[in-house]
Write a structure and sequence with these properties.
The complex is a heterodimer of chains A (about 550) and B (about 240). Chain A is mostly helical and about 550 residues long. Chain A is built from 17 helices and no strands. Chain B is mainly alpha-helical and about 240 residues long. In chain B, a hairpin with a 3-residue loop joins β1 and β2. The N terminus of chain B is likely disordered. Classes of the chains: A mainly alpha (about 550), B mainly alpha (about 240).
Chain lengths: ~550, ~240
């Protein structure tokens, strides 16, 4: 590797993993399944969401294979409906929502604030069990014969017209919702009440701020989804009439309630990812994040604005012109805090000592792809354009740029960044750079053609399409193959590194966060003594000073 | 209880004794921090509950404005006497719960158990009356989806005005919301009573009268919340246009 790196590993001949750590404090399956340790729960979550990610990914693969040809030839059209529904449900509720908060957040937030654990360890474990139960329900819906409402459960389609397993899938999402509520609740209480002495709000790493903002959305938004699903299930099971036009109910009310959660859910998914990017950009530019306060408050602003834009999913559903106007304006306003983040990260890079470790490559991928995803969101937020573009592949490309290009890149960035902390070992550097590059190329090849094909008018959610769209669809399917390899690679080499990776030492990146000042992997109780925080976040001078004086912080 | 702890864990100074309070979980620095965290967590949970019921209240608000005549006649089908009794029962149960928290504070074990039992009984009475009301709805064919007829609203036998068939159909929305809202409330009562049963057993063993009463306090918050939801449900469902 010709590029400069700041990786500082201990001499490998003498280096060894610490004798005591959270990984070897107890042995046996029971010690994992009944653990209260936030780090072990994070690992449990990591394994389970990876499992569901690959199921959801397999569904995506099937979708792209079907769309290779204009005819619906690989599967029957109703099978296709079931496949994209499952892809959506699994990816949104079982992967994207818990991805960064429940794994990385669970692992590092208590350490970042200087606490021994999250405020409610049992609730944290309960949240994982709820997630598993939700997963079982979702998989049963799939195995029993599928569900074909789309992940949006649109009424009256979902309540009256389909003979598939809507109730099972709905219950799965209901339960996953409570898992998410408990994670959010735990984070909020931990960040409010468990900070170490001296860890003021404006000394918190930005990762905490963005997870805090996402937690507010989880706590306030998810219950509304829960009650909406209860009403859908009741309507389907016993035929009450809240959304049924025949009984006087209004299906549009379902849309309002559903999107009241599901739009903020987009920010639940992206905000923690933005937190990862702040940490990574700062570490590998060796600079404090430019405009720390602005970035911190932009997270909160996104959370607040996020609650007032839901009807932009409903412009073509017959909402009044005036409310459409207001919601369009508010949608444009969300672009402001998002842009603050992007510009401030760019300004952080300016005159920084930039190095190109794998997490940084993923972070660059995030910045580019998220910007495209965000800007096309402004297209869709403007009323006239939306009429043309909505329900086409343009919108599919838009939210995949944000969710996959943005969030998944951020997730992988974070996993690589904190992998040495979680396991005590490094991932293979060259291979991981290759994976980052493969993901980026594969992603663009998959989703950029979809912008074009959508603009040309190809609707989403159909197994067949006019032959003139085939070239772009073949490009997209080819890209999906590359992307698939890009995701398999980390899965393989990260597993490999558990045994054969180089010993990382406590702070391979020379990063400033509290989590880097303790041993890797950390002790069960994180800190031997409660840390006393006397410096701002991202204070590299403080770090240099620490190193010079060899202040004993490693347990 | 306390003397037992001191006997098994030699205490070096006052600070140590404080830190080793048997109910202090290992990841909290102080008892105060633990108490604040759990009470803050409980308030946040109640916030999620408000949002949960909020979806139903939103639906109610919209449909009541659209189908006011249907809501009026639907509401007049409910028994105002039973509703009022239930409101009184629930307010009393909040009082007994508050007394339970007070007894825990005063470290009176038997009083605590007594007040909790009283709360359970009052909660049971509420659910019993509610079940009777549901049964009556079933007999009158007012359960949308399962057993519903518009007969009572198109051809009323009492002094109510007859509704045109179209508006009479909309009473199904009213009754759907009635069952969804009171049903969700009743579900919260059932969960509350189940938790209370556990709390009574633990309280009998003296778990909440040795200085650590956060659990009782938090459960009290939950119980009062469920009570408050009913305080909103009662006028919204039972008292529409009763002045006529």
């Amino acid at each position: 590797m010709s590029t400069a790196t700041i990786v500082k590993l201990p001499p490998q001949e003498t280096a060894s993993l610490p004798k005591r750590s959270y990984l070897n404090s107890e042995y046996g399956l029971k010690s994992w399944l009944l653990t209260g340790d936030h780090k072990r729960i994070a690992i449990l979550y990591l394994i389970s969401i990876t499992f569901f990610f690959f199921i959801g990914g397999a569904m995506a693969g099937l979708i792209r294979l079907e769309l290779l040809t204009p005819q619906s030839d690989l599967m029957a059209t109703d099978t296709y409906n079931k496949v994209f529904t499952m892809h959506g449900i699994i990816m949104v509720f079982l992967f994207l929502v818990p991805s960064v908060p429940a794994t990385i957040g669970n692992f590092v937030i208590p350490i970042m604030v200087g606490a021994k654990d999250l405020a409610f360890p049992k609730v944290n474990l309960l949240s994982w069990y709820l997630y598993i139960v939700a997963g079982i329900f979702t998989i049963s819906a799939l195995v029993l014969g599928g569900v074909d409402t789309g992940w949006t459960f649109t009424t009256p389609l979902s309540t009256h017209y389909l003979n598939t397993h809507v109730i099972t899938a709905g219950l799965g999402i209901f339960i996953a919702g409570f898992s998410s509520i408990f994670t959010g609740l735990n984070f909020i209480v931990t960040i409010h009440r468990m900070r170490a002495p001296g860890m003021t709000w404006f000394r918190l790493p930005l990762f905490c701020w963005s997870n805090y903002a996402a937690s507010i959305l989880m706590v306030l938004g998810t219950p509304v989804l829960a009650i909406t699903l209860v009403l859908v299930i009741l309507e389907r099971a016993i035929g009450i009439g809240v959304f049924d036009p025949a009984k006087g109910g209004d299906p549009l009310l379902f849309q309002h309630l559903f999107w009241f959660y599901s739009h903020p859910a987009v920010y639940i998914m992206i905000l923690p990812g933005m937190g990862v990017i702040s940490e990574v950009i700062s570490t590998f530019s060796r600079k404090r994040v430019f405009g720390y306060t602005a970035v911190a408050f932009s997270s909160v602003a996104i959370a607040v604005f996020g609650f007032f834009v839901w009807a932009h999913h409903m412009f073509i559903m017959g909402v009044s012109n005036y409310s459409a106007l207001v919601f369009s304006l508010l949608t444009m306003l969300v672009a402001v805090p998002s842009a603050i983040k992007i510009f401030n990260w760019a300004a952080t890079l300016y005159k920084g000592s930039i190095t190109f470790e794998t997490p940084m490559l993923y972070a660059f991928g995030f910045m580019g792809l998220f910007t495209i995803g965000g800007l096309t969101g402004v297209f869709l937020g403007s009323l006239g354009m939306d009429i043309h573009l909505t329900e086409t592949y343009f919108i599919v490309a838009h939210f995949h740029f944000v969710m996959v290009g943005g969030m998944l890149m951020a997730f992988l960035s974070g996993i690589h960044f904190w992998w040495p902390k979680m396991t005590g070992r490094m991932y293979p550097e060259a291979l991981s750079k290759l994976a980052a590059l493969t993901t980026f190329i594969g992603f663009n090849l998959t989703f950029f053609p979809q912008f074009i094909v959508g603009y040309l008018g190809m609707p989403r959610r159909y197994a067949a399409y006019p032959p003139e769209f085939q070239v772009l669809n073949v490009l997209s399917t080819a890209g999906a193959t590359v992307l698939g390899i890009g995701y398999l690679l980390p899965m393989l080499y990260l597993t490999w590194s558990l045994k054969y990776g180089k010993i990382a030492g406590s702070n391979p990146w020379q990063a400033t966060g509290l989590e880097w000042q303790i041993q890797s992997p950390p002790l069960t109780e994180n800190f031997i003594e409660t840390p006393l925080v006397d410096h701002e976040a991202y204070d590299y001078e403080w770090l240099a000073h620490q190193t010079e004086h060899e202040v004993q912080t490693v347990g | 209880m306390d003397s037992h702890v001191i006997a098994t864990q030699p205490v070096h100074d006052a600070h140590e004794a404080h830190a080793h309070a048997p109910y202090l979980r290992h990841h909290f620095e102080t008892v105060e921090q633990q108490r604040e965290a759990s009470s803050f967590g409980m308030w946040l949970f109640l916030l999620t509950e408000i949002m949960f019921f909020g979806g139903l209240f939103t639906a109610y608000l919209i449909y009541r404005n659209w189908y006011y005549p249907a809501f009026v006649v639907g509401s007049h089908q409910l028994s105002i006497v039973l509703g009022t009794i239930n409101t009184a029962v629930l307010i009393c149960s909040s009082f007994t719960m508050a007394m339970g928290v007070y007894s825990a504070e005063m470290k009176r074990r038997k009083a605590l158990v007594g007040w909790l039992l009283a709360t359970i009984i009052l909660g049971g009475v509420f659910l019993g009356i509610k079940a009777d009301e549901y049964h009556e709805k079933w007999e009158k064919h007012h359960v949308p989806g399962l057993n519903f007829s518009v007969q009572d609203f198109t051809h009323p036998t009492d002094a109510e005005p007859a509704l045109p068939l179209d508006m009479a159909q909309k009473t199904q929305v009213y009754f759907s919301l009635y069952f969804a809202m009171t049903g969700m409330h009743a579900l919260h009562m059932v969960i509350g009573i189940s938790i209370l049963l556990v709390l009574v057993v633990k309280a009998w063993g003296g778990a909440y009268t040795a200085g650590h009463m956060t659990t009782i306090e938090n459960f009290g918050l939950y119980w009062h919340f469920v009570d408050i939801v009913w305080i909103f449900l009662f006028p919204l469902l039972y008292l529409i246009s009763r002045h006529q």
